[in-house]
């Protein structure tokens, strides 16, 4: 049953109840002054998926800047829908842009609704979600051709971000991925099976040959390290009281990045549970500092203004 229904177990767009019927308007007041707009794009297999695009607006509802210097593509965890995450993303976006002047950084966040989630068509699977991530990067390249692009993934979304970046960087396609934000990540589905069920008498550790969902961040980071040209900078953002991902998983990822000589920053969010890392101000500040530093390094700008 575990093997046959692994898609149902791993991907939970139906939780909590009514998650797929949520609307952007239900969260609009808690997102202000960030405005969110739904866009529909097509994956390469024809599946229509939804994206939520967030931009900062002024009191009249107008966008505060006509330019975008940085686009963050957000890949969510395995449960729930996009709208419920928008207040959190809005708080982070406001913090990133709160240091900005008219000549400084202007950021946009695009949250991806995987197939089978929210208003997206189809059923979730690793193969399909890979197509959705690739289609989103094509959309970003067409919409923001001169922007720096960062990928932010939470939990299983961190695996999506790593795999998407590795696949993208092995091509000559634009945009270049300047940074990866890996929030409460794990190395792979197989590694999580062993970490959660270490007892050799339990069957779970022996099921990996039957998995068709892998989300192997270890292999993806190795591929990223082997690519030519500039490599994305990486932010590891673990929660110290994570009740889902064991602490050895972040240690493995940190070692992988160090051995692969990838530029990596780690910020542990003290006392946070699995879904709380960027609910907390220190988590949002860590993302903000990383985004602004990546932007500064990419554009060879002067020291950024300090935002606390």
UniProtKB/TrEMBL annotation:
Protein name per the record: AB hydrolase-1 domain-containing protein
InterPro entries cross-referenced by the UniProt entry: AB_hydrolase_1 (IPR000073), AB_hydrolase_fold (IPR029058)
UniProt GO molecular function: palmitoyl-(protein) hydrolase activity
Boundaries of every AB hydrolase-1 domain copy: 72-222
One Pfam family here: Abhydrolase_1
CC annotations in GO: membrane
Lineage: Eukaryota, Fungi, Dikarya, Ascomycota, Pezizomycotina
Gene3D superfamilies, sorted: alpha/beta hydrolase
